[in-house]
Amino acid sequence: MIRENNRSVSQTIAARRLPLSRTIAFSVLAALGCASTTASALETDFGVEYKATGFYVGSDSFDTDAPVAQVSGDRLDDEIDPSDYDSGFAHLLRLKADFKHEATGIALKTSIELAGDRFTGQDRGYTPTGQRSFNRNSRGDNVRLDLAFFEIPFTYGLARVGRQESNWNNCFLTCQDRRDRLLLLTRIGSVTPFFAYDRTADGAGFQSEADGDEIFTGFVAPIGGWELGFLYVHFFNNFSGNIADTDPALAPIGSGVAGTPTDVNGDGVPDVIVEAGSTGARNVQAQSGLDIFSPYIQGSVGPINVSTGVNYFFDNEVENNTTPEDGDIFTDNRCRRRHVRVERAVCRRA
Asked: Domain ends where: 104, 130, 151?
């Protein structure tokens, strides 16, 4: 995620301040082919990324019982047994196009995803809501924007603005994620510090509880032939409470409120109306006010590559009241995860 050499430029671009009414906006506007009044070269780079993956997944969490009849309790389909595994074939295809203005060093990097889904044979499943993809963030064969961001070099480092890729801690914290991000990198000796703002989600307009806002800072540094990385993440405190609302809103009978007449006094006569939509899952992010520490170290011992890392989550303001008390992960106030990976590349030279 943060392994770029910093570049510097001696030029600065003056920004104009325009009066705006009730709107605060930050924009990066560039016409790379017209960045100066004189002719300037525009470097272009096109590429293709393709990856095919066969997979087998086994977990007790997938082992769910078949639906049962409400009255008899019998399974509705006694010919199909539930399974705790899944297997398949998936492939990824992306087209990349990068543009760089030689005079200023400003670059635009883009990627379009043409396929990133599980192979389903003749069942094409073009609907974007189909649950057919192994990667649940990629539904069907829809063409979509993968990456699009500007790289802007300045005297002390590099800025990136736009939709970017997020990987950290050897895919232990994030892996091939996409974030709308403002990222600043610099270099102090051999150490690369960084600071960024992320928008990980925007669930609904004019509803901050549904937003996934976070800031993070950290560094990557060489240490004795190894690589050390450290990351601190803080999610904005946009919501505090339970994921699901279990306290219904009640209205008097005859009030005209849409809902279900309910007897709360126990006399067999409905006396209130449970307002429709007043209970159930809230449109909120599972991380709010959450802090994360995520350090890692990786290197080689002879022919063996070794990496280890830790994720520590704490002080989340969201309680997941839809799962058992010991079933929470991100919503635990104190949550630790560790990994150790040892691998060896096997190469045969002709």
From this structure: 151
